[in-house]
Request: fold
Amino acid sequence: MTNLGTDQNPLLVAIVGSGPSGFYAAEALIKSEVKVKVDVLERLPSPFGLVRSGVAPDHQKLKQAIKLYEKIAESPDFNLIANVTVGTDISVKELRDAYHAIIFTCGAESDRKLGVPGEDLKGSYTATEFVGWYNGHPDYRDREFDLSHDIAVIIGQGNVAADVSRILSKTIDELKHTDIAQHALDALAESKIKEIHVIGRRGPAQAKFTPKELREFGELSDCEPVVLEQDLLLNPESEKELEEKSNISSKKIYDLFCEFSKREPDTAKSKKCFFSFLMSPKELIGDTTLERIIFEKNKLSGESFKQSARGTGETIELETGILFRSIGYRGIPVEGVPFNESWGTIPNDKGRVTDSENNVVDQLYTAGWIKRGPSGIIGTNRACSVETVECLIQDLEKLNSSTKKSGAKAIYSKLDIKSIRHINFEDWKKVDTSEIELGEVKDKPREKYTSIHEMLSVIK
Ligand code: NAP
Reply:
């Protein structure tokens, strides 16, 4: 048998998911010493995952990662097979038959649950839905958010909560030259929200924002950040945490909260964004629609860096008709691939997929949020994907198969039989160019197509 990874017998790899970890895995494979052919399968006609539909529209700089992904896509060893859902249009078994190896980089598309009564009342939304909606993701474009209330509540103090509350805090002038979806811009223009409450279950020393994201709240044109001085008192363990040099980001966050608490309120601004701590929602109250939230006050317990929130029994209520639960994403299982229900991830050892007995499953690999959980910034995924690809290359001999693998050819013939239309990178570039042209008229970086049908009709 010819050695695998040579011109005569290239290593055929399918990557499932075209977000950052998928592109970084493709890059690592293409740059490796072995000859590869990489097919990236994507459910939507558009690539780039959360860089397109998660990164906030007013954070265009972060979207520059796409330039690198476009470079990777130029490689003759890279091929996009988009508008194809693995698990439905193509099974994992069919991928295993067609490729030497498959890397699952399908991210974390669902949400963690709060697990409190009333969580599913109308008016209680996940951050994922709202983010997808303002970013024009086809799955969420038809969602409706009732922005007619005075008060909005966001549960969670991570960067997604920062994005959601910042979008609610900004004026239309601050948003209209971004790539925010037009339907969201129109709805936000009618928003009556005046108070945004961003609520953490732990203290100000444990908030998970990054300093840059929090600082932006001090620079909004019509919204004041509000932090009460008495909420910034720290227990000794939190003080210890902030003294730790490696915890510089939390110290910066805490200093920003202190700065916000000392600000002279700008009465000319029509909105306020409150940051509050040590509160957990206990129950969401309403008949069919959210009317108020009962919070339990918390105190911290445990040693520094391991402190958790414990309820004190004391409760307070907040009247609101709109809540965004921003407490972290969660992966969803793919049929034919092991899944850890508790973690919402694919079990793995450095990227090699493992089964319930911790044995490595041949041919299957994983990278990104579905491998390690939803943490880190875009660039964090690069090291994660490189680790997986290094394991895959180490397994080269084991991956060499006596049966011939035909890669994309086999997949195209399966898709053709089922009349499933697949999109390549050149097709996508037509959509991309058209979106940019539509945006130019409005002085926006792009106007996104928000339905699969619209995208496919541009490609013709
Ligand atoms: P995250 O950073 O993990 O924050 C989740 C927040 O939810 C934390 O404050 C957490 O509190 C809280 N939480 C979790 N379970 C809870 C519960 N049951 N009740 C109340 N609060 C709960 O997650 P994320 O905001 O979804 O962000 C995901 C990743 O994407 C992060 O690494 C983030 O930095 C990244 N991201 C980056 C950017 C950017 O760079 N601009 C933008 C968006 C997202 P505890 O700390 O107590 O668990």
About this structure: The chain has a mean pLDDT of 97. Residues 59, 112, 114, 155-161, 163, 200-202, 206, 208, 213, 280, 326-329, 374-377 surround NAP (CB under 6 Å).
